[in-house]
Design goal:
The chain is of the alpha+beta class. Among the domains are: 42 residues, no CATH class; 83 residues, Immunoglobulin-like (Sandwich). Helices cover 19% and strands 19% of the residues. It contains six helices and ten strands; from the N terminus they run H-H-H-H-H-H-E-E-E-E-E-E-E-E-E-E. The strands form three sheets. It has a five-stranded antiparallel beta sheet, with no helix packed on it. Strand 8 and strand 9 form a beta hairpin. The longest helix is centred in the N-terminal third of the chain and has 12 residues. The mean pLDDT is 78.
């Protein structure tokens, strides 16, 4: 009797055991009979069909996201992932609600930009940083332009000067030759604006220590001084400090 002539009603439950079926005697093709399908309650599938269905489920997903466990991890194991994302997005500002500069980043898109003065006479003292107007600087009086640094001028040479911040000036030079027991008038490279505090002299040419203390500077004014020398004919250095 052929197998396809046996209906499910002809096979009693438990009538056929595993020992009654030889290895390899039942093939996939033989299982596709109405009687067997009715007995099993479903239609057996082939390995090829099973592989096709699994691939359709995965649908070419990457290896790191082709299992339910990997998908759950990617979503932070958050069962309410969609709600969490929606709530987070609701806290963000809409671009339509932002100023143009927030999306362009351009200075020209700023509103209420301050006006930057182009001249110093456009500056005001509204914050009171200046207690009074600047009327003098380092000996210069009247309107003072802070960009003009000539008030800190200098002349670096054998006879020269240096104007310092705060008004102090330093001048130096070398006198002409002075004969023994002679006096000469020595003018400063430039006149001090107000006065000279002191003049210090030093012998240039003589190596005789006996004559080192025989120099005198007196009658000091803002324009120059008189030097007296007792000793060999010699030139002399001087340095003067004033304001």
């Amino acid at each position: 009797m052929a197998l396809d002539q046996i209906t499910s009603q002809a096979i009693a439950d438990g009538a056929i055991s595993a020992g009654d079926i030889a290895d390899g005697s039942i093939t996939h093709a033989k299982l596709h009979t109405t009687a067997i399908q009715d007995k099993l309650g479903y239609t057996p599938v082939s390995p090829t069909q099973l592989t096709t269905e699994v691939n359709n489920l995965i649908n070419a997903a990457p290896g790191a996201l082709n299992t339910l466990g990997e998908l759950a991890t990617a979503l932070g194991n958050d069962a309410s992932f969609a709600t969490t994302v929606t709530n987070a997005l609701s806290l963000k500002a809409n671009t339509s609600s932002l100023s143009t500069v927030a999306t362009s980043g351009s200075y020209s898109d700023l509103t209420n930009k301050p006006t930057i003065p182009t001249n110093t006479n456009q500056l005001t003292n509204g914050a009171g940083f200046l207690s009074s107007a600047v009327t003098s600087l380092n000996g210069s009086t009247g309107a003072v332009n802070l960009q003009d640094l000539s008030v800190f001028g200098r002349s670096i040479s054998g006879s020269g000067y240096q104007k310092l911040p705060g008004g102090l000036w330093i001048q130096w030079g070398i006198t002409s030759y002075i004969a023994d027991y002679q006096r000469i008038y020595q003018a400063f490279p430039v006149s001090f604006p107000n006065a000279c505090f002191s003049v210090t002299c030093q012998n240039v040419d003589s190596e005789d220590a006996n004559w080192m203390d025989n120099l005198r500077a007196y009658d000091v004014t803002a324009a120059g001084f008189t030097m007296y020398r007792r000793g060999n004919n010699s030139r002399n250095w001087f340095i003067a400090i004033g304001y």
